[in-house]
Amino acid sequence: MPSLSYREAVRDALSRAMRDDPDVFIMGEDIAEMGGSMGVTQGMLDEFGPERVRNTPISEIAIAGAGIGAAMQGMRPVVEIMYEDFLTVSMEQIVNQAAKHRYMSGGQLKVPLVIRTQGGAGWSPGAQHAQQLEAWFVHVPGLKVVYSSTPTDVRGLLWSAIYDDNPIVFFEHRLLYGIKEEVPEEIEPIPLGKARIHREGEDVTVVATGPLVHMSLQAAEQAEKEGISVEVVDPRTLQPLDEQTIVESVKKTNRCVTAHEAVTRMGFGAEVAAVVQHQAFDWLDAPIERVGSKFAPLAFAPVMEQYVVPQVEDVLQAIYRTVGRDGD
Amino acid sequence: MAKVERETRVSEELLRDFFREMLLIRRFEEKVEERFRAGELPGFLHVAIGQEAVAVGVCRAMEEGDVFGSTHRAHGHTLAAGTHPNEVMAELYGKLEGCSHGYGGSMHLYDVERGNLGANAVVGGGLPSIVGAALAFQLRREPRVAVAFFGDGATNIGHFHESMNLAQLWNVPAVFVCENNNWAESTPRSQHMPIDDIAKRALAYDMRAMKVDGQDVEEVYVSAREALDHARSGEGPVFMAVETHRLVGHYIGDPQVYRPKDEQRELRATQDPITKLRERLGLSDDDFEQLDREVSEIVEESVRFSKAATDPKPEDALKNVYA
Predict the structure, then answer these.
(1) H or E segment at A27?
(2) What pLDDT, on a 0 to 100 scale, did the predictor assign at position B33?
(3) What span, in angstroms and rounded, lies between the C-alpha atoms of A278 and B247?
């Protein structure tokens, strides 16, 4: 089995889709000669040429909108918004146009568009280059939202996203691009709406996304030394959400922690908590704990940035609280 | 789709056909106003009275396979593109038989089969995806053109500038039809843009621009043929600055406190595209009245059709969210 980094896994899915299907093309800022600001599309210009690997002006409205228009004509564009902070510039197109054409047309149109983007803290980019805004998009009917945490997942999910007939906001995390994993030779498409249980456990379920999946796995190992058995579930797609896997896990463990890098307030964990309390109320032995960023923009100074975003220790402490144990 | 010979003049037969279509739109819009005031139509509505020649001239110049995006003032474009009046009216009544099956309404009329990719209620919101449709035609080497309708007000939004820039940069087959009626809702052009000549907007992008009298359907049609031909042949997008007049308020019921009272009266007397074409064709009263009876009956029938049409079930609201 080849070993691929998360970055290479994204590139592999894009490239294979473009080899297989002339309707797939990519566009975005600096994605051609430069290979993308994160290096994801390196080499693709050479293989596919400038018609299908399209450098765009700095025009996030037009990038999203041109993708929508091409998708409505039956193509399968994958557009890149360099930082998810810049999705806010495209917001009108994503929310009012991409998400609603099918609906407003009474089912006449489809918008098979993937909007790839990335973000995430941990390298001091400051307040406008590292936000985690995935929850905003889950709030919009008509969009699907994906957030991948591993090379295997990002490859299989991106493949499914490209061949899905709906507009999808596809979140990647900057600090995950370098992580490696052995992946199957052939892409195994991962259905949207199917969670992954990374680690089975008996005492606490941690529902985590993005880098918090890896932090939660580390926290789980530490907790195990204390005799606490932790199950780690990554929903992978936030919309549609695999409620069943999450609820079944909590019914088994009776405790739940949600963990994401986005700000805790109104974060995706709030929705997970609502789903769990509603469907597994009688199984819960402790209040659901939420782990996320503190309520502040991201500061530049590394000590402040690290203070705001969640760390392994934050997940561990949340696990301890659900089992009624003082960690410190 | 074959390339069309550039026409320098339009046959009288075709002009008569345009006249009938424009009159149909006028009578349709008047009926919409009447039924809205009678409380039969939900939502809020924008009629295109005064701008019929733009809709007919541009839409009739399009070829099969061409597509367009419309605006909140969409009834005229939709009818001119061939959607049956019954389907347009039924949409305004919120019926399943409507052209958007009750999901869209007046500001979101769609008819994909006839190239209508949807009317957009975010001013300028539809422009980027028209560039995207044109990009798809270019990538697939299809001789098709994507047309964007929008008003003067939309040329102040970033969407417009990003779309113009990208369209010209990539040389996609798009035509930008700016229906300049000199009003952005209640705000006159003098208060919303620092230039008098809206065609100058295209200069910044080195895009071909045309100035068109939007009250003269022949001129609109001939210009649109030329613009479409230009775009279709791969020579790049075209910006059509079409001067027109909104002979009514922004929306039905708009008291127009912002507009001099005699302006509209004067415009109606001098700038009504239907009166102009009627004079041009030298239509007799008898001819006119016969045409008027025909189109008015079509409009009456659209109301009867819509009232008898099917209401969606409330839970149909949960369909069509995803493909």
Answers:
(1) strand A24-28
(2) 96
(3) 56
Question: What number is the ipTM of this complex?
Answer: 0.95
> What is B92-130 written as a DSSP string?
HTT-TTSTTTTSS-GGG--BGGGTEEEE-SSTTTTHHHH
| Phi, psi dihedrals of residue A262, rounded to the nearest 5° | -60, 160
Looking at residue B1, its pLDDT comes to: 35
Give me the phi and psi of A135, to 5 degrees please.
Answer: -65, -30
Given the residues A8, A29, A60, A261, select the one marked as catalytic: A60
Lowest mean pLDDT among B21-30, B44-53, B144-153, B182-191: B182-191
How far apart CA B221 and CA B19 sit, in angstroms, is 12
Q: Give the DSSP H/E element, type plus range, for residue A44.
A: helix A44-48
Query: Length of chain B in residues, anyone?
Result: 323
Instruction: Indicate the SS3 state at residue A107.
Output: coil
Phi and psi at B119, nearest 5°, equal -95, 135
**Sign (positive/negative) of CA torsion B68, B74, B77, B83?**
positive
Chain B residue set in contact with A, beta carbons under 8 Å:
67, 98, 100-104, 108, 110-113, 117-118, 120, 122, 125-137, 139-140, 146, 158-159, 162-163, 165-166, 169-170, 319-323
Beta carbons of A183 and A2 less than 8 angstroms apart: yes
The pTM of the whole model exceeds 0.80: yes
Assess whether pLDDT exceeds 90 at residue A326: no
